Amino acid sequence: MQREELAAYIDHTLLKPEATPEDVAALVKEAADLGTYSVCVSPSQLPVETPESVKVATVCGFPSGAHHSAIKAAEAKDSVAKGADEVDMVINLALAKTGDFDGVEADIRAVREAIPGAVLKVILETAALSDEEITACCLAAEKAGADFVKTSTGFHPAGGASVHAISVMNEAVGGRLGIKASGGIRDTETALALIEAGATRLGCSSSRAIVEGA
């Protein structure tokens, strides 16, 4: 894969709580230089000016997902009003772990209905879920009208993206929903393995090293 092709998979990400506006400006410059698909920043950093070629993504209910659905929906709506093209929301993991997948669907649907014109990605935190739970969450996201399912926040102690998780997600909704791998992707080899397994988008903070390794 050529560098330009690989860069086009990437949401160039900066979600450290201590990130400053200057850090975000540097992120945008690097994204434009590398040719990444988007930048992904915290909601408090919005609005962000980017070149027309670089989309703006943000997060919602981040990083725990343990927020009321109405709060997630309001946060997402505010972010889109401030220029976000895409929103990556975190599911309520407690609902998934107790088998309440109707509740997972309702939580996602609340955000979907708040941002009808934006791309919605649903973060499952796959390292904390069984294969059966991952599959059920993917199907709940599809029913709720999400555009993507996504592995991880990158903040959970259980870990980030894995080829196995992407394979499970791909089997569940591949070809119907986008699949985003994020969390712990730091080199080209890992990025390419995740794409081979079915990832259609990558969330990375080490984007330069990944792209330049191609």
UniProtKB/TrEMBL annotation:
Location relative to the cell: Cytoplasm
Keyword tags: Cytoplasm, Lyase, Schiff base
Coarse class of the protein's main subcellular location: cytoplasm
UniProt enzyme class: lyase
Pathway in which the depicted protein is active: Carbohydrate degradation; 2-deoxy-D-ribose 1-phosphate degradation; D-glyceraldehyde 3-phosphate and acetaldehyde from 2-deoxy-alpha-D-ribose 1-phosphate: step 2/2
Superkingdom of the organism of origin: Bacteria
UniProt-listed SUPFAM superfamilies: Aldolase (SSF51569)
Catalytic center residues: 88, 150, 180
Pfam families per the UniProt record, alphabetical: DeoC
GO annotation terms (biological process): 2-deoxyribose 1-phosphate catabolic process; carbohydrate catabolic process; deoxyribonucleotide catabolic process
UniProt-listed Enzyme Commission number(s): 4.1.2.4
Gene Ontology MF terms: deoxyribose-phosphate aldolase activity
Family (UniProt): Belongs to the DeoC/FbaB aldolase family. DeoC type 1 subfamily.
Function: Catalyzes a reversible aldol reaction between acetaldehyde and D-glyceraldehyde 3-phosphate to generate 2-deoxy-D-ribose 5-phosphate.
Protein name (Swiss-Prot/TrEMBL): Deoxyribose-phosphate aldolase
Gene: deoC
